[in-house]
Specification:
Layout (H helix, E strand, L loop, with lengths): L1 E5 H14 L11 E7 L2 E7 L4 E7 L1 E4 L1 E6 H10 L4 E6 L5 E6 L2 E8 L16 E4 H12 L12 E6 L4 E7 L3 E8 L1 H6 L5 E4 H10 L4 E6 L3 E6 L4 E6 L9 H4 L7 E6 H11 L9 E6 L3 E8 L3 E8 L1 E3 L4 E5 H9 L5 E6 L6 E5 L5 E5 L2 E3 L5 E3 L3
Antiparallel strand pairs: 1-5, 1-7, 2-3, 2-6, 3-4, 4-17, 6-9, 7-8, 8-9, 10-15, 11-12, 11-14, 12-13, 13-26, 15-16, 16-17, 18-22, 18-24, 19-20, 19-23, 20-21, 24-25, 25-26, 27-28
Helix pairs in contact: 1-2, 3-5, 7-8
């Protein structure tokens, strides 16, 4: 194999490829970045055995070939080289990749092409266009509500087709739930009726890769495929086959026998940030005392003292006291654009739905903390 490439044309793709591969554990072929040279293109491939990344870039190919190179070392070396043309060559006599740029010369061991395992090709038939930045925003506004651990549905993003071309994307962890509803006729027709599940650990890498440009999307029985509009880069993720919980059960509670609290988001965030100073590991919530036009927010921390702040609100309902985990409530508020938020309370220990007029298609549900006494709380589950 022998080719020439310009660092500035391949370095971003190499860094994306390196983000996927394991650092030290796993088989050598998984820690490798695979370089495939042919038809004046350099194809860069990497996988952790689940996520697959492929990128194709302009190259001057003198001799085609396929080799695997120790991924992180190779990328770190090229990252530290100045911009300009780089010569890559593999000798037949020895399994070594020669990397040359002017008077700079390096050698890295390579893996034989027989180690290479075929990657999944992007399925062309039925592929649809979608907005990359919308998909990225969707992940950002849901992923913090998805469970961190466990091989089950609560560690996944769920996306399914609804009525009238609407799509529901949701995530939950037992204490919080987030859902975005949006319309996309093409994507709606692509999704299976039962929906798809993508594990959170794969979404983090996809979110980093997604940009603001349009993307191609396709779905097979086992994988989600995403590709840049110019077809230069693609990523595919495995789909999970778990059964997602029926969240309509607790959503329906938001429509019956509820209390409503309307507050200014910025003012509430400022107050919660100050109150959080008085939270401890054993007492990590903010206490809300509610009346028609005022909410008194308070917290008491052992050895930290106490805090109390009053907010002007609009409240109608029968619940006098309710408690929420402070940090969770702050995180939720950060994901809204609305100046005013509406909290729909189903009970002192029931699901609380949060919505905003400028976030009409976005809903987050948070579970209050069970109030045991003035200073002790326990977390309820959805």
């Amino acid at each position: 194999m022998h080719l020439r490439v310009y660092k500035e044309e391949v370095i971003e793709g190499l860094q994306r490829a390196a983000n996927i591969i394991p650092q030290r554990t796993g088989a050598a072929y998984l820690r490798s970045i695979w370089l495939k040279a042919e038809h004046n293109r350099l194809e860069i491939l990497s996988t952790d055995s689940n996520i697959e990344f492929r990128g194709s870039y302009t190259a001057e190919v003198s001799e085609p070939g396929l080799v695997g190179v120790q991924g992180r070392s190779f990328v770190e070396l090229l990252r530290r080289l100045p911009a300009g043309q780089i010569n890559l060559r593999v000798d037949d006599a020895a399994p070594v990749l020669h990397i040359e740029q002017g008077r700079r010369k390096y050698k890295l061991p390579v893996n034989d092409a027989t180690w290479f395992q075929k990657f999944s090709d992007f399925p062309e038939q039925g592929a649809v266009m979608w907005s990359g930045d919308f998909f990225q925003e969707l992940i950002d506004r849901i992923i913090y509500c998805i469970g961190d651990e466990g091989a089950d549905a609560l560690a996944c993003l769920f996306m399914k087709p609804g009525e009238n071309g609407r799509i529901e994307a949701a995530g939950m962890n037992g204490h919080q739930f987030a859902m975005i509803r949006f319309t996309n006729d093409d994507l709606h027709s692509l999704l299976p009726a039962e929906g798809i599940l993508v594990q959170k650990k794969y979404l983090n890498e996809l979110k980093k890769w997604l940009g603001t440009d349009e993307i191609n999307v396709n779905i097979s029985n086992k994988r989600l495929f995403v590709r840049t509009e110019n077809r230069a880069e693609s990523m595919s993720l495995p789909l999970s086959s778990y059964q997602y919980p029926d969240y309509t059960v607790f959503l329906s509670r938001l429509n019956t026998d509820t209390s409503t609290l309307k507050l200014n988001r910025a003012e509430a965030q400022d107050a919660l940030l100050r109150i959080a100073i008085f939270n401890t590991d054993s007492n990590r919530c903010t206490y809300f005392d509610l009346s028609a036009k005022e909410a008194v927010l308070s917290a008491t921390g052992q050895d930290l003292g106490s805090a109390s702040e009053s907010l002007d609100v609009e409240y109608s309902g029968t619940i006098e006291k309710i408690a929420f985990p402070t940090s969770n409530l702050l995180t939720i508020m950060e994901h809204y654009a609305s100046a005013e938020l509406s909290l729909t309370l189903t009970g002192a220990e029931g699901p609380c739905g949060i919505s905003g007029s400028d976030d009409a298609d976005y809903l987050v549900i948070i579970m209050p903390m069970k109030i045991l006494d003035d200073v002790n709380f326990s977390e309820e589950q959805v």
